[in-house]
Amino acid sequence: MSRPLRFLLAAALCAALLVMLAPLALAASGPPPGWTKIATGGLGNPNNGALFGFVNFRGRQYCFVPATGDPSSGPAVPVWTWDGTGFAKAAADGFGDSHNTALMPVCEFQGELYVGTTNVTGGQIWRSPDGSHWERVDLSSILTPNDDNCQPLGVQDGRLLLDIDNYGGTGSRAYSYDGATFTPASTPAYGMDGQSVSSAIVLQGKVHMVLNRRNAVGPLPVVPLAYTGGTTWTPTALEGFGDAANTSVYILRTDGVTSTAAPATSTAPRYGASTAPAGRRSTSAR
C-alpha cells in the first residue's frame, strides 16, 4: 500500500476513534450541531475521498488531497486553499508535473510556504512567498534513486528539517536547510531501518515525528523521535509505544502541551491513541 493511501487510512481511523470517544450525541441525520458543510462532490472530483487542512498562510488554509489514482501515472494532485468563503486552486495541479500525485504536510519557513510532494520520479519541494507564485527548490544534490516522498517536518533552531522517504532499500533520511544549503540531519535510515515518517509536529521548540521501519523480514515497531541536533534523533517512547505490533503511524498532532499519535498494528486492524506531555515518554492506550 502506498504511503498516501496509508496516510488516508490512518486519518480515517483516527477520525473514527475520536468520534467513538467524544462525549457527543450526534443527530441521526444532518450535520452535527455547530457545523456547516462547505464543500460537496469531492471539489469537482468524486474520487477525492478526503481533504485535510494543513496550515494557515497569508489568510488562507492550505489543504492536502491524498492520491486518487496510480502514483506512477496520476492524476496530478490539486493544490487547494480555503479563504473562509470558498475553495480555490493555488497552483496548477501537481505544480505542473503529472507525477506529483500527493502533497505532504507543509510548513512556513523564512516567510515562505514550503510544500512537499510524492513523485515516483523523485519527490519535490515547492515554496511560495504569497501562496500564488511558486518556485521549485533544487534537491538535485540530495536526491537518490527511488526517493519518492519529500516532507517538510518543521523549523528548529532557525533551520527547516525535511525527510526524504525511499522504498527502494536505502530507507528514509533527514536534512536541515538554511534556505540555500542542505546538511544531513540523520544517519541513513535514521540508523534503525527507517523507511518513512509520520506527519511531524514542533513541540516546545523541537521537531517530533514517528519513524516507520522495515527490514528484509518485514515491518518493525515504530519509534517516536525528537530531533536533538546534528544527525541525532532521540527516542521519546519505547519502540511501538511498548507494543511490538504497532508498526506504523502516519498522523501526529499536538495541542501545544501534549502530542498524540495513532499507531496501527500489524496483527489486526486495531488502533490506539498515544499521548504524552512534552519531555515525557509516551504510553500506548489500547
Q: What report would you give on this structure?
A:
The longest helix has 19 residues, at 3-21. The protein has 286 residues and is mainly beta. The relative contact order is 0.10. The chain has one helix at 3-21; strands at residues 52-57, 60-64, 79-82, 87-91, 100-103, 107-109, 112-119, 125-128, 135-136, 147-156, 159-166, 173-177, 182-184, 194-197, 201-203, 206-214, 219-227, 233-235, 246-248, 252-254, 258-261, 264-265, 273-277, 283-285. It has one domain (3-21, 46-285): 6 Propeller (Neuraminidase).
Describe the structure concisely for a colleague.
It contains one helix and 24 strands. The protein has 286 residues and is mostly beta strands.
Shape: globular
**Spatial gap, N to C terminus:** 24 Å
Compressed to H and E, one letter per element, the order equals HEEEEEEEEEEEEEEEEEEEEEEEE
Number of helices: 1
- CATH structural fold name: Neuraminidase
Helix share, percent: under 10%
Low confidence ranges = 8-28, 268-275, 277-286
Provide the CATH architecture.
6 Propeller
- Cα radius of gyration in angstroms: 18 Å
CATH class: Mainly Beta
Which structural class matches the secondary elements? Answer: mainly beta
Instruction: Note the main sheet.
Output: 5 strands, antiparallel
Q: How many extended strands?
A: 24
What's the number of structural domains?
Answer: 1
Beta-strand residue fraction = 35-45%
| Average pLDDT rating | 81
